[in-house]
Amino acid sequence: MSDPSRPVRTAAVIPAAGLGVRLGPGAPKALRTLGGTPMLVHAVRAMAASRAVTHIVVVAPQDDPEGVRRLLDAHPLADRTGLTVVPGGTTRQESVRRGLAALPDGIDVVLVHDAARPLVPVETVDAVIAAVRDGAPAVVPALPLADTVKQVEPRPQGTPEPVVGTPERSLLRAVQTPQGFDLPTLLAAHEIVVEGEGATDDAGLVERLGKPVVLVPGHEEAFKVTRPLDLVLAEAVLARRRATDGYV
Fold first, then answer.
1. Which long-range contacts (C-beta less than 8 Å, at least 24 apart) are formed by 63-71?
2. Which of 24, 72, 162, 236 lies deepest, with the highest CB count within 10 Å?
């Protein structure tokens, strides 16, 4: 954002290469249908609903980027939104890196959005973008926790776990996506190599740089579809939107 005379351009990267094993056997999570339409299509539409977003990069499963491209071409976006599909990596962090490398020139603000959050409202997307444009290097939508959280000493699954602490709930937030960044900050953050499965939260990488991360209000409909029960809830939300808002 170095040239104040040039309009700020925003793009979105959607990592969609994961299998989503907790949803059970079948297609990759992002390609499961919601209301007859793949979740990935809903997620892409959610980003494109913001008039600030000029380009979307979808990071597809490694074995079928061409199939994902055909799927998205069958659900075209408005002409004002460009679309690129690239194959993903073996970890989420590698997939996001590949998405960032595919961004067109001239992008200032980048959103990273989970394909498994197909119903995030455009108001949330716009709030994240606005906060980055106002000068925050990293912005995350988040909600207060409804449940008390316990810190435990981990044990094998199914074994009772000793409680070692109870964090103060009023100080905790459940984060969502899209997470927004000024592009140089996110590129610098992804130069950090994380062991194991890589980074599951891009804002966490920015924190490692010592850069500030700020939160804006999230939305209850921006939940992540991870388990079969989440699909039931998402179908209900989608049905309500179609009945009352004319949602496609």
1. 68/16, 68/31, 68/40, 71/31, 71/38, 71/40, 71/41
2. 72
Q: Closest Cα partner for 110 from 129, 130, 135?
A: 129
Distance CA 29, CA 82 (A): 24
pLDDT in tens, 129-174: 999 999 999 999 999 999 999 999 999 988 999 999 999 999 999 9
Give the domains, in start order, of the chain with CATH numbers: 10-138+176-244 (3.90.550.10)
Write the DSSP symbol of residue 170: G
CA atoms of 23 and 29, how far apart (whole Å): 7
Nearest to 96 by CA among 3, 205, 174: 205
Dihedral over alpha carbons 236, 238, 242, 246 (to 10 degrees) = 150
